[in-house]
Automatic annotation (TrEMBL):
Transmembrane segments: 86-103, 123-145, 157-176, 191-211, 259-280
Superkingdom of the organism of origin: Eukaryota
Alphabetical list of PANTHER family matching this protein: LATE EMBRYOGENESIS ABUNDANT PLANTS LEA-RELATED, LD23009P
Keyword annotations: Membrane, Transmembrane, Transmembrane helix
Principal cellular location given in the protein's record: membrane
Keyword Disulfide bond: no
Organism this protein belongs to: Diabrotica balteata
Gene Ontology CC: membrane
Protein name: TMEM205-like domain-containing protein
Domain TMEM205-like positions: 122-217
Localization (cell): Membrane
Amino acid sequence: MCVGKIVSDIERTNPVIGKLEFKNVEQVRPQTEDPQSCNPDRGEYEQDILGVSTKYVYYLFQVIKKLQQQFFKSNSYKILRHTTQPAHFITAVSVIFVAYLMMPGKTHPKMSLLWNLLYLGSFSAHFGAQIWMTFVSGLALFFSLSRHTFGSVQQVLFPKYFLLNTVLSFITLFVFMKTNNSVLLESWENLIQALSISLCFLVELVVRLYFTPPLLRLIGIKHKIEKEAGVGLEVGKYDLGKLKDCPYYLKIHKSFRSIHMTIAILNLVAMACTTLHLYYLSQKLCSI
């Protein structure tokens, strides 16, 4: 039996390492900061410019909402809401104004940069909103949300969508007629474009004034009945459940489908008009 110092392989190959004295592990550990000595301001969340701007936009919308609620309580709103006379008046004024724009002028004003921006901006925003609402937003939400949630979203979007389209189509019509009414009767091309844009504006105006309010009212009635019956939570399909034997509900449902189908057809008519004008603009760009 051998008695003596056992030399490891590391000491044999490198005697310097064998003579090293390692420090205590506690001495080489990084010292953590005392939580009580931390600056309390260092942990606070600082909003960036996007967060600050969002906050002020929220405040602005709250002010607008309060003014809107005050207007809803006024007698003027009750007259506008519960009677059809204002809608008839707006429609009559719009038809007269469109007829006035269709009258041929004697001078041909030059198209300034501002009018070009307004014309192209309104048309492109109008056509983009139609494509998004018809083929993207509606289908995506219908196949992703429950039917009642989808209906609630449509109650918010429908009035704003047709109001936006009406305003944008009016701007497009106004600028187009302002710069082309002097040569309106010189070619069929200009006349067809004027008629198509006018038709688009009037169709969207009629939908907003006459078809959207009853549609929203029927959606509210349907949702109330369906919630009591425990239906309307299905996603991507339409299941009436036990309401298919309710004559009152079926009558409301039939009216809803009729108005909804009419709005869908008129929306496609408006899209056809804007597509025709898009073809007209593409021809103009090709001739440059």
